[in-house]
């Protein structure tokens, strides 16, 4: 075939692109669409690769800008605007530094439970990164917030635990495993709701402050008459078919006993015996007549009896106690420290065996000693003491306690301390600071330096201006040491560190404290200094 014939064949062929003529125009024409398509694919691929490469950088830059803007708003005190921006920054680029700023913002905003959880997450992230300094900082910040966390307990009694029950807190569903357990929550007002098929919706509100422990009990939901009634299983089943077993009815919280409708004992009798409210034995009696209608009526009667018993029975908070739910605060602990007695004068009990003399107009008078005109002198006495301390008061708020503090103990070497008085304490994070006014008795066994007798004021001039003279005592008649006692008045500065906060719904709810209470007191003759430290437990 020559070139002319080939050209003719190309023009007449129905598929000119598939011509195998080398060097002809038909092959070049066939390659043009594929080349264009390949070029376009390469361009799209390059653009997509460039977009993927630039997108992390764009998100990172956007996150940095949001973080910087959020920090500026925090400095201006605009926390409601700052926290969402920092939160969005963390969503775009989850970094530990951003999480630290977010937790700090929520803490300043008053959302201390949210901030506490974020500090825990920050500590875990820092541990994975190997940043021990940041991990320790996050742990310390969380520990500082933990004693102030409000805790809310959601209780669902058996009478309220019907099929399909859904409990929400601020619109978020609460898992049934969390019922009856105290959970940290931000201070403020919160909304609790409960709903179930065929029941009327219930809503409640609770306001909680820092450090408070509160409980909300979900009541048994009333039946909704406007809702479509649930089909009675006994009516649907054939007359000869047994009703559902008792265990199935008990699981629905509608109360059931043993037997089936139409056979054995009726549901009305046994349903009241084992109702969801757990109230004794039922009032239904006898045997139900055979037949599905009677069985359904028995179940309905059991439900009515159970609802009435649940309404009459008082609702109880599981594990709660009067001490936990009240305002009374009780603290008790063991104490020890140093007792420094600077009592320089007093009596040791047998001064009447001594006498002293002084000048009178008629000459010299020898006067007998007694506790009114003679006193003994003592050296300072320093010694350790061990005892206990206690506080009983009222929680005016979660951070302010007012009550009475008592401190007492035995001084080694002889002596004692027994003082008490009003006390006021205020909390600053994990530290309690307080002031106490104290009064009581102090005794010390100290060295006797001598005995002196008083000269009447009208005779001072005749005795060369002296107001007292040494008592003449036989050698060896004075005791080496003696117990001197005095009434003292003063106060203490009380500093307590929360070592462990142990909240619970039982009477043991409280905190373990380490206390230091430097005390200064003025006695009738001298001073008393006490430096006690104690380990105590505060029940609240």
Question: What's the tally of helices?
Answer: 11
| Amount of helix | 25-40%
Low-confidence stretches: 6-27, 232-326
N-to-C terminal Cα separation, in Å? 111 Å
From the alpha-carbon coordinates, what is the Rg to the nearest angstrom? 44 Å
Oligomer: single chain
List keywords for this structure.
540 residues; alpha+beta; 12-stranded antiparallel beta sheet; 4-stranded antiparallel beta sheet; 11 helices; 21 strands; elongated
Describe it for me?
30% of the residues are buried. The protein has helices spanning 3-12, 25-75, 79-92, 96-109, 112-129, 132-145, 233-236, 246-251, 267-273, 292-312, 322-325; strands spanning 151-155, 166-169, 172-173, 182-184, 188-195, 202-208, 213-217, 328-342, 345-346, 355-360, 363-368, 374-378, 381-397, 400-411, 415-428, 431-454, 468-470, 481-502, 510-516, 519-523, 526-539. β2 and β3 (172-173) form a beta hairpin. The protein is an alpha+beta fold and 540 residues long. The strands form four sheets. Strands 8, 9, 12, 13, 14, 15, 16, 17, 18, 19, 20 and 21 form a twelve-stranded antiparallel β-sheet that branches. The radius of gyration is 44 Å and the shape is elongated.
